[in-house]
Amino acid sequence: MIYADYNATTPCLPEVADLMRHFLCEDFANPSNRASLSGRRARAGVDTAREQVARAIGATPDEVIFTSGATEAANMAMIGVMQRLLRERPRILTSAVEHPAVCMPADACAQAGADWQEVAVDSQGRIDLNQLEQALRHPTALVCVMAANNETGVLQPLDQVVRLAHEAGALVFADYTQMLGKLPFNVHTDRVDFACFSAHKCYGPKGVGALYKRRGLSLPPLIRGGGQEEGLRSGTENVPGIAGFGLAADLAAREVHSRKAHLQRLTAQLEGLVTVQVPGVVVQSGEADRLPGTSLFSLPRLKGNWLGQLPDVIASSGSACASMQGKPSHVLTSMGVDETTAMRSVRISLGQPTLEADVRHIAKRLIEGAVTLGAV
Ligand code: PLP
Q1: Residues of the chain with CATH 3.90.1150.10
Q2: What is the CATH number of domain 14-254?
Q3: 70 lines ligand 1 (CB under 6 A)
Q4: Ligand 1 center to residue 252 CA distance, Å?
Q5: Does the CB atom of residue 322 touch ligand 1 within 6 A?
Q6: Per-residue pLDDT for 324 more than 80?
Q7: Contact between 65 and 217 (Cβ < 8 Å)
Q8: What is the Å distance from ligand 1's center to 92 Cα?
Q9: Which terminal CB of the chain, N or C, has fewer other CB atoms within 10 Å?
Q10: What pLDDT does residue 330 have?
Q11: pLDDT the model gives residue 356
Q12: Quick one: fold of 2-8+256-372?
């Protein structure tokens, strides 16, 4: 089997797993137990990870809050901001191509009385800045936009989104889940107010992530209890997961240039092979700036599901959430792709372990599938 679903999740690096094992089996004491050496070591593990994540994203350690993943971080920021600002600024804006981790908290805010509006995207999946500007004429608390899309890889014009939002007095939440280790960035220079991250997208463990909260901003607690994570998220810290995330984030940031070059080279190879041999194939968001490593292929004339034609390739049909519900991806339909074509599209997402031979094999299977399904 060839794994080509790295945007869904990545394998844990061995050195990350080794470090986690250390905090599971050796320095396993509660990090709040400062009286014991093991507890102090566990605390040091959390502190080191906070410094590593902060450095990797361009923040300071006090701006990093560990969570169970990007979904929790998005919920914490979005629901928290809207709770605080609902009366003065009832509007919350999201792009039409957000992950459910952002759409569903926005929906919860709407149910609590907020005025949630989705801002349209163009055929490449980029947010419509004119529509955003219009929508910002109403008092808006928060604009939520994905830095890089998990399905198409499209990069949003974050700089312009932030400028428009800030000019209108709104805060910005950006979903960077797919960016870490694929493209360099810095949350301070990007001037975002909140951002979310997830360890399992960058060769760390599942079930751990972080919220970046710009210094000076405050949020109400999401989970109340013993006051961990500055009182925002109580409960004994997931020390092995946090330490693993710290190391994975550190490596991601250190290796970002070589990882990016590897993914760019393989993506060009894959898209080159498929577009030459499959006339009419569309690489979604292919005319826009994209994450390296993400190729979402659509082919309007297919007489069946392309993904089903890849017996030894683990890929996806775009969004795992959408495919689980048997629905077309809202990302593609928002870009103007018809529902049948959206359902039959295939997302190939490559990773650091991917080899050129893997790419040749994936391309071969895609081409054979297109022939079988009568499109070539
Ligand atoms: N945002 C994006 C862009 C994602 O790709 C994902 C993962 O599927 C998430 C958020 C949710 O991340 P997590 O699994 O850490 O909650």
Answers
A1: 2-8+256-372
A2: 3.40.640.10
A3: yes
A4: 17
A5: no
A6: no
A7: no
A8: 20
A9: N
A10: 93
A11: 98
A12: Aspartate Aminotransferase, domain 1 (3.90.1150)
